[in-house]
Design goal:
58% helix, 7 strands, 8 helices, five-stranded mixed beta sheet
Length: 342
């Protein structure tokens, strides 16, 4: 009997030791997991900080360039108004001279022929018009640069969404228009609706537009590289804006690239996820964009895509970020299943 009791006691003691060992193992595993999560969160925070610093630096550089260009551009544009008036008066004076002195001296005749006066009188007004158009274009570019440079603004402001989109397209214009190796240029179609001003953080939304449009350009460039030059494929980005429902705006950015497979769509907002080489991308662009749209503005960011059918990123924003968004969460906007904008 005593031997049986000893064995029972040893068994219980062994079971208790095993239980304690398992508990320690579970605690150790939990500690390792918590440290891994903490390290991942720290790494994410560090890269987000670097991304924010990079975008802020970009905004400062763009803002500085715009400021430097703005003064001489305004000087040129303003003086062109007076130049046009002066030239008009001089041309009118020449016309009067020709009427009253139809047969000038030989020296005047020779000069008229050498400078081709009839052509000069016809072409000079056109030249002034083209210079004015160029100066106006510079003014618009400077204004767009200044709008985009509001990346570090920390206060809610009423924003013209179209102005932000246009400013972002201007920043990316070189990549859109430049077509190396005779590849076709990217066509941008803007289908802007009648949107109200949106109460938001303009600089952060510009960052969202920049990330999504830059990704679209990447995808189209990659598709163009993989296709033969003989292909009739035309790279396309279409931007459509509408009032989605009362109190909400809808921004759809579509590209006719290769599309995103369903398994990757579940990962695109994950921090550090990227299909590009690590040295080229941090994998934070869409993650930060999702955070800006959803967490900061109370909106929704959806990706609608299918492999080989292009991709639409849909941004849904409340007109006032302070409105109650609880009734909106969980709703899904309808788009065509192939990823094309409705």
């Amino acid at each position: 009997m005593s031997v049986q009791l000893v064995k029972t006691a040893d068994l219980k003691e062994n079971q208790e030791r095993l239980k304690q060992a398992l508990e320690k193992q579970e605690a150790l595993a939990a500690l390792v997991e918590s440290r891994s999560v903490a390290m991942l969160a720290l790494q994410k925070a560090q890269l987000q900080f670097l991304q924010a610093e990079k975008m802020s630096s970009l905004g400062q550089i763009v803002g500085g360039v715009a400021h430097e260009i703005n003064n001489p551009a305004n000087f040129i544009y303003g003086n062109l108004f007076h130049t046009e008036i002066y030239l008009r008066e001089l041309l009118e004076l020449i016309n009067i001279y020709q009427q009253h002195y139809p047969d000038p001296v030989l020296a005047v005749k020779a000069k008229v022929e050498s400078i081709d006066l009839p052509f000069l009188l016809e072409d000079l007004p056109k030249l002034i018009e083209s210079i004015q158009a160029g100066a106006k274009r510079i003014k618009n570019i400077v204004e767009s640069l200044r709008n985009f440079s509001r990346l570090d603004e920390a206060q809610l402001k009423a924003m013209d969404i179209h102005e932000g989109l246009d400013s972002t397209l201007l920043i990316l214009q070189n990549r859109i228009s430049y077509a190396p190796n005779n590849r076709p240029k990217i066509i941008v179609i803007k289908e802007y609706g009648n949107l109200p001003l949106v109460n938001c953080y303009p600089g952060q939304l510009n960052q969202v537009f920049f990330n999504i449009l830059a990704n679209a350009i990447d995808v189209l460039e990659e598709k163009l590289i993989n296709l033969k030059l003989e292909s009739n494929f035309t790279p396309l980005i279409r931007i459509r804006t509408t009032v989605h429902q009362v109190g909400w705006v809808n921004i759809q950015i579509f590209d006719n690239g290769t599309g995103i497979s369903e398994d990757l769509q579940n990962k695109i907002y994950d921090p550090f996820f990227t299909t590009k080489p690590v040295e080229e991308r941090t994998g934070l662009g869409l993650s930060i964009s999702h955070q800006i749209v959803v967490q900061i503005h109370g909106g929704r960011l959806n990706c609608i895509s299918a492999k080989g059918q292009g991709t639409t990123f849909q941004i849904e924003l409340p007109i006032d970020t302070l409105i109650n968004t609880s009734s909106f969460l969980g709703k899904q906007s309808k788009l065509e299943p192939d990823g094309a904008i409705e």
